[in-house]
């Protein structure tokens, strides 16, 4: 019997990297366990998970939207509406009944593409948002956006020379999925000096490099609002990017999961790529991703989302259907979560006032924390930070003293991972080093979420640590 | 702009076939839509989905276990326990509180491997079942068994010459996942004349053929209880299979999702491969899959399950962790469903009596339907059917008149697909042709579930159709 060792397994998979749940997150879990056993002494009394956009996790405790959870509870046990009369608002009872009539039990597999009725509601949400029609047959409900992105990358990678244009910095799902499916990442750089803006010139540079490397570009990934940057594209840039996809025959993969996380919406509104493609009457194939994990919903644990196919033929759509059918269907709890996201209570309905109050509170907290954290980080020596107009994160640039860089290299760590590990060891704050997202050679960043309550205390810890670290390695 | 056509996409994916949700299932959905609009006349008044083990779907309506759904409803909206006092039994309230204390909000991402507390409960379930310890660190919660199977196949396929031994007939997830990950299926044949038994000799024959074809065998898939066959392995056969894996350095992938669907448990009990491997003190790497979609739970829509790694090193386990972490976590509704499956109410607890009644009813209905359907099918001319001791299906062998075979070939269909399509067109009963699972050359079968209520009426339709079809093509 030959033992099962790494070298007898698929080597390509060993290239997969996913820093958001990597070394630091694993260490943070160990610290959390240690804190439970009183015998261990650590320099902090709690672990703060700023590494991942997970609003409802313990310690952050962003409350779920009551409407969403009431509908879900009734879907789990429909008899409740009669057993607990008056406990659920009448619009919730009506909504749950409507879903039950359409779906039946949420314990059954649905259509592999998602419940037809919910896809109809998603299509209406999209057409109301954009002013252009959407077809429920082009909507695929998914277990979060990640599952859809991975599927599309699998479809687009025809051979090991195929590549996909990925922003740097990027959300590492993209490089992980490319590694898993034997494809190449073609990097293009966002411009930090202009608020992490995207330019056609930088993508053209990426394409030129790909040609030199013998890489065949298949698609362009755009994350808007950006992750980890929080940047928002302008309508003009979006039009230029659509033209670029036309010119180079690229499929556009538009990751729009943060479309409802806008901190200064008047100044920086969100426009969908679907709308721009339709306005320009462009023929480019577009796949747009959305999710219930972000926005004000923050329902990460349900695993719900969708993607919409635009300018994609029925035969290609049939292939997508066949592939998703092997996994049977997305979780029904995620599907009904999507329904609540695209059909929130309307003005005049019994649940509206509470829904409005809850969502306003979440928006306001995120905006004010983002602003405060950016201002305080920018005031630190050796730190500069674009104040994100969208998404859930900040991505400060940090200067790391050369002695610390040397110590990092000696320890076999990237210097920003060395910094982030020291931050975790000292304060219990878990972040993700910029090297996990990609950055320009010789620059260092880290990503942290703006989800933490008690932001004054939290920023205070970041400040004290940074000053201490800088002094230690001066 | 070059349009996005099938030929510019990953060709390998076009080989993926998944008959359970294939041509027949799609046609059945169209019929269902047609029946809603009164203008269409069809020779039946309802579509019966016998193509998939989906107990809670509309028309089958196997009721969910009340305990499971009560715990889930409280997890969705914890305030309910106080808002509706007395509605939930006290053990349900206590269970939901215990889960909340451990997990926090089910709207948060959990540990990528699954909630540690739930993995502990799974480990206890396994050790109680087998009499050997299980380690929570070796348990991975999943979105149904399918997600885990696909991941393991991806890991094991090192290059396009790598193959995995697959029973024929098989559940088509295996060949679909192999096609997706560029691997080869190495077929071995189950013996219908001996109740679909598995033999070492047939696997040895598969291995010999693989050597001739230049295929490098990596793993052996065993489905026990069988799908589509419902067969159960004996302890002796299991021991032989473990020895065979030792000899040939094969990873054993044990699909045990039907372990709780036993119709004659005294005569045909279930033994897990984990238990046999431990009893034999065998070093073979084993991955065992279980699910909440089958059994008496039937919670397909939650997407919950787990796999356990046995005799697998920490470094390989770390690779598994890294890969699952890219998808963030399995759905929490599935995870708490797993918890309810492995920790049902105990005798003496308030929810026990109802739980016992509900599960006994489901077991009894499945056993009696399986027996009745097998007897009636066996009485038909040209039909023979092994009476399954386990799982949810029958897989009758059918003789197809040669004129029908010719007509099928002329229509570009497999003869059993031709038969199953005619059955659907005539009766509204949707099944899966045997060709979707694999069968011996020149033999024909179809798979149907034993989940349909109104079994007399249902079998009557099957009988009348079969006689009509046989007469038509005589």
TrEMBL record, chains A, B:
Residues 89-450 form the Aminotransferase class I/classII large domain. Its cofactor is pyridoxal 5'-phosphate. Keywords: Aminotransferase, Pyridoxal phosphate, Transferase. InterPro entries: ALAT1/2-like, Aminotransferase_I/II_large, PyrdxlP-dep_Trfase, PyrdxlP-dep_Trfase_major, PyrdxlP-dep_Trfase_small. SUPFAM superfamilies: PLP-dependent transferases (SSF53383). The keyword Signal does not apply. Belongs to the class-I pyridoxal-phosphate-dependent aminotransferase family. Alanine aminotransferase subfamily. Homodimer. This is Alanine aminotransferase. It comes from Mycena chlorophos (Agaric fungus).
């Amino acid at each position: 019997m030959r033992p099962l060792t790494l070298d007898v397994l698929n080597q390509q998979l060993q290239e997969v990297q996913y820093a958001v749940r990597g070394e630091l997150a694993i260490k943070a879990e160990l610290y959390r366990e240690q804190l439970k056993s009183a015998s261990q002494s650590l320099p902090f009394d709690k672990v703060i998970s700023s590494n991942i956009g997970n609003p409802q996790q313990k310690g952050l405790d962003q409350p779920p939207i009551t409407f969403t959870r009431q509908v879900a509870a009734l879907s789990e046990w429909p008899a409740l509406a009669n057993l607990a009369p008056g406990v659920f608002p009448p619009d919730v009872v009506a909504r749950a009944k409507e879903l039950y009539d359409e779906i039946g039990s949420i314990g059954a597999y649905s259509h592999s593409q998602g419940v037809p009725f919910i896809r109809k509601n998603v299509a209406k949400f999209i057409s109301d948002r954009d002013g252009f029609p959407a077809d429920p047959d082009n909507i695929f409900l998914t277990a979060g956006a990640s599952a859809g992105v991975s599927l599309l990358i699998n479809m687009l990678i025809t051979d090991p020379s195929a590549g996909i244009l990925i922003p740097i910095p990027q959300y590492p799902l993209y490089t992980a999925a490319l590694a898993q499916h034997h494809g190449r990442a073609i990097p293009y750089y966002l411009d930090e000096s202009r608020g992490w803006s995207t330019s056609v010139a930088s993508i053209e540079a990426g394409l030129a490099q790909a040609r030199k490397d013998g890489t065949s570009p298949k698609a362009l990934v755009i994350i808007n609002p950006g992750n980890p940057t929080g940047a928002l594209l302008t309508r003009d840039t979006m039009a230029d990017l659509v033209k670029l996809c036309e010119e180079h025959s690229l499929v556009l993969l538009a990751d729009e999961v943060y479309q409802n996380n806008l901190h200064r919406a008047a100044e920086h509104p969100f426009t969908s790529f679907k709308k721009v493609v339709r306005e320009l009457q462009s023929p480019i194939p577009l796949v747009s991703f959305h999710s219930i994990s972000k926005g004000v919903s923050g329902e990460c644990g349900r695993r719900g989302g969708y993607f919409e196919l635009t300018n994609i033929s029925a035969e290609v759509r049939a292939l997508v259907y066949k592939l998703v059918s092997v996994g049977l269907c997305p979780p029904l709890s995620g599907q009904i979560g999507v329904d609540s996201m695209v059909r929130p209570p309307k003005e005049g309905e019994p649940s509206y006032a509470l829904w409005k109050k809850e969502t306003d509170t979440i928006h306001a907290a995120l905006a004010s924390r983002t602003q405060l954290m950016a201002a305080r980080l920018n005031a630190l020596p050796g730190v500069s930070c674009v104040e994100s107009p969208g998404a859930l994160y900040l991505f400060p640039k940090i200067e790391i003293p050369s002695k610390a860089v040397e110590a990092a290299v000696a320890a076999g760590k990237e210097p920003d991972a060395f910094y982030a590990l020291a931050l975790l060891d000292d304060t219990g704050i878990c972040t993700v080093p910029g090297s996990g997202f990609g950055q320009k050679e010789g620059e260092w960043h880290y990503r942290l979420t703006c989800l933490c309550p008690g932001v004054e205390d939290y920023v205070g810890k970041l400040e004290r640590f940074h000053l201490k670290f800088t002094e230690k390695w001066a």
